[in-house]
Design a protein that fits this description.
The protein is globular. By secondary structure, the chain is an all-alpha fold. It has one domain. It has six helices and no strands. The chain is about 65% helix and about 0% strand.
Length: about 130
Amino acid sequence: MQRLYDDGQYGLAIYTAGVAVEALFRAYRTRIDPSFSSRHNLTELAKECRFAEHVPGRLFDEYTANLATVALRWNNAHRYRSGSVMLRYLNRNGLFKGIRGDVLKENARQVINSATDLVNLGVRRWKNSSNT
């Protein structure tokens, strides 16, 4: 993700960050239900895998903010989108407000930071979990 961002591949950085979060939630979901769900809705996957149950109370607000940041900006169809089409998607969804400069770059930064936090939290909790 970060390398894509550093290389100016902001749309692809957003897409891969979302895929990383999706993969994390799918891994947690397999502990509950090993059947595959083809949906790509991060908020629903988070609910299905009961990820919030693994989040310490002191981190819950940060978790919900990070999930919202990624879920609002990520869509599985982004893998087919060019940078200009991705920018239109962000603008159409009002994700340009308060941003000075490159809207796509700033959204990519936000998604990468939030996805990294989510994945790191999930990996730490997985390692500490007695269900492994």
